[in-house]
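Worked example (supplementary).
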Amino acid sequence: MATDSPLTFYDDGLTGVDVSALCGKLIVIEGPDGVGRSTQISMLRTWLEHQGHAVMDTGMARSALVGKTIKQAKQGNTLGPLTLNLFYATDIADRLENEILPALRAGFVVLTDRYFFSSIARAVARGSDPVWIRAVFGFALRPHAIFYLRCEVQDLLPRVVYARGGFDYWESGMDVRMGKDLYESFVRYQNRVIRALDAMAPRYHFEIIDATRAPEKVFADLKRRIGKLLAGKKKKAGGKARRKPAALEAAAPAVVEEPVVAAVEA
Amino acid sequence: MRAFTNRKCPGKLIIVEGIDGSGKSTQLSLLSQWLRSRGFGVVFSEWNSSPLVRDTTKRGKKKNMFTPTTFSLIHATDFADRMERHILPPLRAGSIVCADRYAFTAFARDVARGVSRRWVRNLYRFAVRPSLAFYFRVPLDVALGRILGGRDALKYYEAGMDLHLSRDVEESFRLFQGRIIDEYEAMTEEFGFRVVDATLSIEEQQTQIRKTVEEELKLSRAGDLLKTPWRGFTNGNGFAPHIL
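After joint prediction of all chains, the assembly is encoded as:
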């Protein structure tokens, strides 16, 4: 369910971070590997910019702090599942503090190619405790909308085999080896990831988008929903969505750059 | 909220905690020497030493890239790698693992930086509960004297300069480490620390620690603890894989 309420943290948020003056929109595109998230994001970006919105897009392992480290660690043969989970948590926290929050303060539409939901799904697919990993991500900002591009593993196969030229080691969960070969492990692992995302849908209010359709159909669907969200239409569902203060809605992109993290005072 | 996994291992996990300059590393090193001389395999794991994470932490510190949250997360990542590779497997094999700082360092430091107590305790929930946790209690001035005597300058994050408590490094260190001590003291009961008076002589402290360890080892069933096969070839000093 999309909401245009002010942004808040899920639980104990980022230490020393003030979220009161965020006037942008945080929109998450989720879904399994190969479902077409990046295609949709690049189309959405162009469309939003034509509409006059400033857009920032971001995605996994792109943080200045650990982006490269994660890629390097994945090249080796020593990266364990717990370490992988926490690397991604560090990556998301760093991007939140240094990219996402400043963009939201400046009034951008932030499109994120996955958020921590994928990290939870992968962690759970690898056998981690779901309660633990959910609480770890309590620091995260609650997005305005989460679009879950949903399909089954069978729908992913042609894209992975033909468009990407084969199965990726990590996307096939080969680090925890779920089958005799890449294909078998991919099917089992991605199945678990999809089940984990499905299970999260009600808790985190995912909007489920049928991604088995042609990309143009999916795009049209996303445009319609995001258009509504940006128009600031009041949602009745759940009664949780509150209208933003008029002052914020009218506000031009903020020019004052505040430090991302204020000093922690005694 | 549950801290630590309930996993039981045949090995023993002995950890030391305390502020910088409390002398805990010296004591742990002496303890490992003694354990090795008695024929036990000892695996050693140090805070901030994961080969996958260490360099990133160093770079982040050098460039002042950390906030309280990312500082906390990168240390947990480092810890997770050591847990998965260097701590848990040897413990399951029956080894004695000695750790210089453990999750409690994060509980103390990160909370002193303003991170939520509840959140950081959950973050480390995958960790094995130590068999023995020694806390080296030392007055701030004693610790500061030892550090200033041994090194050129106090480091930025060690002195909590990121918190802007004071522009003076020494004063900032004092305030920040003071908060850390408060957290350690509050944890003493919560986690059953064995408190060592770190103002006593090195020998007195070591005698007390060995006695406590001796009693803990007696609790092990025969065959639980892994002995080194090389005893007798090493002049009684033992041999141990030294993992850094």
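Two points are worth noting when inspecting this output. The beta strands of chain A are 25-30, 55-59, 109-113, 145-150, 207-210. Chain A touches chain B through 37 residues (CB under 8 Å).
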